[in-house]
């Protein structure tokens, strides 16, 4: 069995940080995170990222966004 419980516990915190940083709704933050390379690596037990803090995972996500030149504009609500 993998580390699903640990991973599931941290995801809401990471999503909240993405929401707050990029001023986007929860569903958009959720979608962006789950489509990211950061999430793919986080979901892979071999990387060991499940043992890191939500803040560390969020920092990896931010770095990925910067490296990709992604613009995280707030959608029209």
Draw up the topology in text.
Layout: H1 4-22, H2 26-34, H3 37-43, H4 54-68
Report on this model:
It is a single chain. The chain has one domain (4-68). Helix content is 65%, strand content 0%. It has helices spanning 4-22, 26-34, 37-43, 54-68. The protein is mainly α and 77 residues long.
Question: How many individual domains?
Answer: 1
Q: How many DSSP E strands? A: 0
Largest sheet: none
Task: Give the overall shape.
Answer: globular
**Through-space gap between termini:** 41 Å
Strand content: under 5%
Helical coverage, percent range:
55-70%
Mean pLDDT: 89
Briefly note the structural class of the backbone: mainly alpha
The succession of helices and strands, N to C, reads HHHH
pLDDT < 50 runs, ≥5 residues: 73-77
Number of helices: 4
**Rg on CA atoms, Å:** 12 Å
């Amino acid at each position: 069995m993998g580390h699903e419980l640990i991973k599931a516990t941290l995801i809401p915190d990471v999503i909240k940080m993405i929401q707050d940083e990029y001023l986007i709704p929860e569903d958009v933050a959720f979608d962006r995170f789950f489509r990211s390379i950061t999430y793919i690596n986080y979901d892979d037990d071999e990387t060991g990222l499940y043992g890191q803090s939500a803040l560390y995972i969020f920092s990896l996500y931010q770095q990925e966004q910067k490296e990709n030149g992604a613009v995280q504009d707030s959608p029209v609500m």
